Amino acid sequence: MTAVYRIILTSLVAGIIGLAGCGGGGGTNVAGIGGTGKTISGTITGFGSIFVNDVEYDIDNASFTINDDSSPGLSQADLRIGMVVTLTGSDDGTVGIASRVVYDNEIKGPVSDLVPVSGGLKKSFTVFGVNVIVDVAGTRFDEGSMPGFSFATLANDDVIEVSGLFDSSNTLVATYIEKTDDLDPGNSEVELKGTPDAGTDAGVGESFPINGVTVNSVADTDLSDIPDSRVTDTQLIEVKGTLVTTSPDSIDAVRIEQEDDDMDSDDGEASIEGFVSDFTDNSSFKVSGQQVDATDAEFEP
What we know:
Elements: E1 6-9, E2 15-16, E3 38-47, E4 50-52, E5 55-58, E6 63-66, E7 84-91, E8 95-103, E9 107-110, E10 112-117, E11 122-127, E12 130-135, E13 140-142, E14 158-166, E15 172-182, E16 189-194, E17 201-202, E18 207-210, E19 213-216, E20 231-232, E21 237-245, E22 250-258, E23 269-281, E24 284-287, E25 290-293
Parallel strand pairs: 3-23, 5-8, 6-8, 12-15, 13-15, 19-22
Antiparallel strand pairs: 1-23, 2-25, 3-4, 3-7, 4-5, 7-8, 9-14, 10-11, 11-12, 14-15, 16-21, 17-20, 18-19, 21-22, 23-24, 24-25
């Protein structure tokens, strides 16, 4: 894997100037920086409130959305270290207050092609064709309902939920993993994100390919979030459903929705954690798939 760097962007040091996709997942949707408020995207590194991008945020009065669930009873107890979250709030660079916390995994599905790398300190595998890498020290493994799940026990056919950041080679560098199931075609619940293959124009009762996976829009698939209830190759979507076959992978979709990572041009100041990619010079590179112009930026060590 190519060496990469993580950086934090704010409106004080870099202008976010356009929309760009990130392989396997969605790029931020920020057309500019201005307005009021702040949107923060990064990895949870600690609790006692919540620490994201080296800032401690008070979330006592925040609303929570976790994997599209906005139930009133959700709280900090439903979050885990390593999850990549998006906050809405304000801060002074050290402490802040968040009014909203959103977590959405990047992918959920069965592990395949698992191999050790870096002398066994890391492991590489795929989930629905997305390359994933985990680190014995840098990835948080959550046992969830599967006691004993860990870096050491990770195995092919484990159905896992992954959160992390995509690097410059489109590899998902996992910061959080939870095992949710052992592979059971016909019953295992899965999720994936991406843009359907070129030429896709599918509605209820039709199938389409995405990232090498066949998605079946069956009679009871919820397409209410999709314009005209038709999936096209111009949409970034999230599919939730049941894995019905493997080799080839086929999913019966329960819900298909347009992907929204909760950033837009009205969000004001932004702080984004991610890997640098597509670097030309300081005026043109990407962070987490987002085009950046840092010509007038102040760089901190």
